[in-house]
Amino acid sequence: MRWIRPSLAVLATALLATSCSAGASSTSSTAGPGGAAKEASPLTAALGSEQESTGPAPAVPGARQGGTVNVYNATDFRHYDPQKVYAGATYNTSLLWGRQLTQYQVVDGKAKLVGDLATDTGTATDGGRTWTYRLKAGVAWEDGQPITAQQVKYGIERSFGKGYEVGPPYWPQWLTGEASYEDARKKYGGPQDGDLAAIETPDERTLVFHFPQPQADVPYMAAQSSSSPVRQDKDTGTDYDRQPFATGPYRIVEHVQNTRLVLERNPHWKPETDPIRSQYPEKFVFTFGKEALNINQEILSGRDGGADATTAATLLSPELYQTVDTDPKAKELVVSGRQGAFVTYLMLNNERVADVEVRRALNLAYPRQQARQVRGGTRAGELATTLSSPALLDWQKYDLAPARPEGDPEAAKATLAKAGKAPGTLTYAHANTPEGQRVAQVLVDGFAKAGITVVPKPVDPKALLDEVHRADSPYDLWEETTSVDWPTPSTLIPFFFDGRANSDLNPARYRNAEVDKEIDRINQIGEPHAKAKELYALEQTVMKDQPVLPFTYPTANQLRGSNVGGAFIHPIYGTVSLAWLYLKS
Question: Does pTM top 0.70 for this prediction?
Answer without folding.
Answer: yes
